[in-house]
Design brief:
mainly beta, Jelly Rolls, 7-stranded mixed sheet, 7-stranded antiparallel sheet, 6 helices, 40 strands, about 5% helix, Glyco_hydro_32, hydrolase
């Protein structure tokens, strides 16, 4: 995937930004005694990630105490600091990320049954803080909790694949792709096979003329567990391009192969032998985004045949209401196609896609990670055709470039998401060279068919496009949608060594800080039984009341808001409110809304929000104060809310035990000659 720093849209529609409150953000703030706090587990330490070897640039991994400074770091101090001087300040240590440098899309997650090992790759520009010369970094794990840089953590040591130089089929980039633990004949003999987009021409973008042959599709393989990689001698295995056979499309892009076997599609299409199926991100100029579908016999994964467009949405349209289902925009990238089985044994088909070019005022980027469920049938041309029946956002924040894989060890589907930074000052690069890196991956997420029975449909609230809804003869409804939650075993592993606290059922009538100083990483899980108005959590709160971030469920329009107006005193970091859609189900048994369970992970600047196992949101906060680690509950002005449970784990595990806390690398600026006079990439 070719990626750039997202364009930020600072204007939120008034109805969404206010949500019935004042000034575009919610009342009940720190002024006038709106907040109060209680001492809770102060003092005490923890073995949180990154606690060792952290230098003077600051990182708080203890679980409380009074040692955290409330002096604000300023933008001027950041700008005058040296490269890598703030490497640990906001860095996540409980997530998968590159040792240093620029990171974007997750690639080729897979489980290797021969060696009982998980692999994750990522788009990487080592020793740079911006996109360019895009390569693949590589990490491995036995349990997806503790990770090892494959090859080492210094400089380029974790590199798996890199461009071979201008003039060759992959000379200017190893764009995104996926992998399988098979050889090119589909056999599991310990070989690892990667399918990626090879790039020979830049720049590439959906809104500029497409140069024929820019993107082709290629294979690489390893027979030693990923220690070394070989390019397939017959690369590229797919050379289709704009206005040529077999697609004959005036394409806006053609990249990011996602390939898997599918016995269900084999049966639907009447295949005489098992096949693998690949989908790509693409689009047709002036028509709309596309997901081309290709297949190859499992016995020869170099022999790919174009079957047709899996799905043909029109440009800049939406499956349902824009707020709840998002926009398809003008081009797809990082597409995926997979099936899940529900509790009754029925198969559900899902497509995910990164949409490009959408200009939606309540979504801060013109990129958006969406999903659709669909009915798959055999079309007149003999290919599979996808007909959407539900949809939503795979990540309601700035999480993007979603990919997933079949974890055959645990019989589940896991998803990885790119969580970019959110820097707006200095052309989107404020603090980037001082931090020495950009980007992280989210916690692995488990996908499943989320099923709910015994529901009511007051005022058509179920008809928002997120679920497949069935009405029963007794007047109740069932709903199914794409479920998402942190992988349970990974979440459990992150909590090991953390300080745990639990508060039992309590009713709050105003905001309350429950721990004034925590750590740079923690998890909060809270269950709201009932509320009369906006309700949620507070994170990143400074003990002097200056900085705080509110995570709010707003019942007036069924939105989840991450309100960042006071997240940092440094305005060069993004402070727009992040908006996601979440509509609680109404239960027939009680006639009331279901309880709301919020599960929030904070790790350095990275924040992940999960709600009721069917909502996920990633975003960033960059507090200027080291003491901005407090957390508590949020209750809108004049409202009351009953929390049946509030749990916290302070000081999450460091998932990189073999890396030093400061794994930074010297930053390099590419020459004009190396970047075609900075037309291929910016060079930094």
């Amino acid at each position: 995937m070719k990626s750039v720093v997202p364009t930020l849209l600072a204007i939120l529609p008034l109805a969404l930004a206010q949500g019935g409150h004042n000034g575009g953000h919610h009342n009940g703030g720190w002024n006038g005694g709106g907040w109060y706090s209680e001492g809770w587990n102060k003092g005490g330490g923890s073995n949180g990630g990154g606690s060792n070897g952290v230098g003077s640039n600051g990182r708080n991994q203890g679980s409380g105490g009074n040692s955290q400074s409330c002096t604000s770091l300023t933008a001027d101090e950041i700008r005058t600091s040296g490269n890598n001087s703030l490497f640990t300040r906001w860095r996540p240590y409980s997530h998968v990320n590159a040792p240093a440098g620029w990171l974007n899309d997750p690639c080729a997650p897979m489980y290797d049954p021969t060696r009982d090992e998980y692999h994750i790759f990522y788009q990487w520009h080592p020793q740079h803080i911006n996109w360019g010369n895009i390569s693949w970094g590589h990490a491995t794990s036995k349990d997806m909790i503790s990770w090892t840089d494959h090859g080492g953590w210094q400089d380029h040591e974790a590199l798996a694949l890199g461009p071979s130089g201008n003039g060759s089929y992959n000379g200017l980039g190893i764009f995104s792709g996926t992998g399988q633990p098979v050889n090119i004949h589909g056999q599991k003999d310990g070989t690892l096979l990667l399918f990626y987009t090879s790039v020979s021409w830049l720049p590439i973008g959906w809104s500029i003329p497409y140069h024929p042959g820019s993107e082709t599709q290629s294979l690489a393989y390893s027979t030693d567990g990923g220690n070394t990689w070989q390019e397939y001698a017959g690369n590229p295995v797919i050379s289709a391009t704009t206005e040529t056979a077999p697609m004959y499309w005036n394409i806006t892009g053609f990249r990011d192969p996602f390939f898997e076997p599918s016995p269900h599609l084999d049966a639907l299409l009447g295949q005489s032998e098992p096949h693998y199926y690949a989908v790509f991100g693409s689009g047709i100029e002036g028509v709309g985004p596309r997901i081309p579908l290709w297949s190859a016999p499992a016995s020869d994964l170099t022999d790919w045949t174009f079957l047709g467009a899996l799905w043909e949405p029109q440009a800049n349209t939406s499956f349902g209401p824009l707020l709840s289902t998002g926009t398809y925009a003008f081009n797809f990238e990082v597409s995926g196609f997979f099936s899940l089985t529900d509790s009754k044994g029925d198969v559900h088909y899902y497509a995910n896609m990164g949409t490009e070019g959408g200009n939606v005022s309540f979504h801060e980027s013109n990129h958006w990670a969406l999903w659709n469920e669909g009915v798959v049938s055999r079309g007149a041309n003999g290919s599979a055709q996808f007909h959407p029946v539900a949809g939503g956002a795979g990540d309601w924040g700035n999480g993007y470039a979603i990919t997933s894989f079949n974890d055959t060890k645990n019989n589940r589907r896991l998803q990885w998401v790119w969580a970019p930074e959110d820097l707006v000052g200095d052309g989107g690069l404020f603090s980037a060279k001082q931090q020495g890196f950009q980007g992280s991956l989210t916690i692995p997420r488990e996908l499943f068919v989320h099923e709910a029975d015994g529901l009511l449909n007051p005022n058509g609230t179920l008809e928002n496009g997120n679920s497949v809804v069935t009405q029963h003869s007794d007047g109740t409804y069932s709903a199914s949608t794409l479920g998402v939650m942190p992988a349970r075993d990974v979440a459990d592993g992150l909590r090991l060594g953390a300080r745990y606290t639990k508060i039992s059922k309590t009713t709050y009538t105003s905001n309350k800080i429950l721990q004034q100083q925590a750590a740079a990483s923690y998890e909060i899980r809270a269950v709201v039984l009932a509320t009369t108005g906006p309700v949620g959590l507070v994170i990143g709160a400074s003990s002097d009341g200056v900085e705080y971030t509110n995570i709010i469920y707003e019942p007036s329009n069924n939105t989840i808001l991450v309100e960042r107006l006071h997240s940092s005193t440094i305005v060069e970091f993004a402070n727009v409110t992040v908006t996601g859609f979440f509509a609680p189900y109404t239960l027939a048994e009680t006639g009331k809304a279901e309880a709301i369970t919020m599960d929030v992970f904070v790790d350095g600047s990275l924040v992940e929000v999960f709600v009721n196992e069917r909502f996920a949101l990633s975003t960033r906060i960059y507090p200027s104060k080291l003491c901005s680690t407090g957390f508590g509950v949020y209750v809108g002005a004049g409202s009351s809310a009953t929390f049946s449970n509030f749990e916290a784990w302070v000081g999450l595990a460091n998932v990189w035990p073999e890396r030093p806390a400061n794994s930074s690398s010297p930053l390099v600026w590419d020459t004009a000659a190396a970047t075609n006079n900075y037309t291929w990439w910016s060079g930094n």
